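Case study 2.
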Amino acid sequence: ALGHLARGEQILDAPTRDITLYVHLTHDGLDNGGVARVESPNTLVTTDQVARWCGADETRIIIKPVIDLNKPLTTSAYQATDAIREHVILRDRTCVHPYCTKNARWADLDHIIEWNLGGRTDTWNLAPLCRSHHRNKTFSAWTYTMIEPGSYLWRSPLGQVYLRDGTGTRDLTPRPVEPPGG
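Prediction:
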C-alpha cells in the first residue's frame, strides 16, 4: 500500500487483513524448507510458506517477544499477567481437562492449588480450562495436579484417573481383576 501511495496511485479498497500468526519453530525448522507449527488453525506449514505470507503486500506483521517456556513466570497478584497467560496458553494449547480439545486462547486460567489456600499465580500453578470444565472442577469433586509443566494427573468424582499431556489423554484407571477360579 505504501508503494502505491509513493507512486501517486489511489488506493480505494486495498485488500488488507490483520492476522496474528503464532508460528512455533524447532531448532531444526529454522533452515529454509523446515517445518513450522501454526497455532490457529493447528497445522504444519513450511518455513517458506511463512516467509511468503509475511512478504505479501496485504500483510501487516505483528511482532511478539519470544517466550522461553522453560523459564517459570510468577506474580504476587491473583490475576495472571499477560506474559504468564501467554506462556500457559503456548505451553498447553488446549483446555487440559481429560479429552477436551477447546483452544486455550479462550479458556480461563485455573489456579491448580487454589489462591485462597496458598496457591501462587505462576506458570507452575496455572492451567487453561474451558469455562464448563473450570466450573466442573470448581463445583464438583474433580481434582488434578501438575506432574510437570504441560502434564496433568486428573481424578474424577468416581475415582477414575487420567493423565493429560501434549499427546492427549490416557485413562490410567486400574481395571477390576477377576478373582481366581471364578
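The radius of gyration is 22 Å.
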